[in-house]
Hints:
The protein is of the alpha+beta class. The strands form two sheets. Strands 1-4 form a two-stranded parallel sheet. Strand 2 and strand 3 form a beta hairpin. The longest helix has 9 residues. It is found in: Cytoplasm.
Amino acid sequence: MSKRYAVILAAGQGTRMKSSLYKVLHPVCGKPMVQHVIDQLSRLDLTNLITVVGHGAEKVKSHVGDKS
């Protein structure tokens, strides 16, 4: 069986959104945007899920936790 990975690009301050929240943590339909991506990727048979973070890394990491 081959190894399959997914990479979530979750870096970015989101300054154009004019909000104190980081872009990937903005809620869409009751969940942070990044959670929608994680939910969809969790349906796949992946070896590992890698999340790239930048600005607000600690807040993003605290939400993502061990999901990636």
